[in-house]
Write a structure and sequence with these properties.
5 helices; 76% helix; mainly alpha; 153 residues
Length: 153
Amino acid sequence: MDNTYILAAISGVTIVTGAVVTAVLTYLFTKRREREADWRKLKLDQYKEFVSALSGIVEGRETPEAHLRYVDAVNSLTLVASPDVLRALYAYMDYSRNTDKTLEQHDRILTNLMNALRQDVYPHRHREDVSQTFRLITVPPDMRSSRSLREEK
């Protein structure tokens, strides 16, 4: 057999093997990115539910049903949240049970929690970019009194 045929056969096998390896690696990396995107979407949905439930228990809006929704949302977070999010969540919950509360301290702990949620959903974001202070909006006092009047009727 001529060396030319042997080299051509080896080159052909090498090219085919390289193409197959490239195709397999591309497929695996694509599937990995898709799984990560699905996981991030699941986390985002859970985090949205948590923030909505948290909004339902702010001063002036709290109801027994809202507290049940909040508890369910917190318990659901334990399935998907990162350890950083869970630490920030538990710190927020511990603070919420505290009797000596200040608005500044509340906002600082809430900001830590919201930043942890954001960092968990989009981990490539630089922590320096997140310098915003978060605050929950409560129901205005005049709406609270009209709400209680409606409930009495």
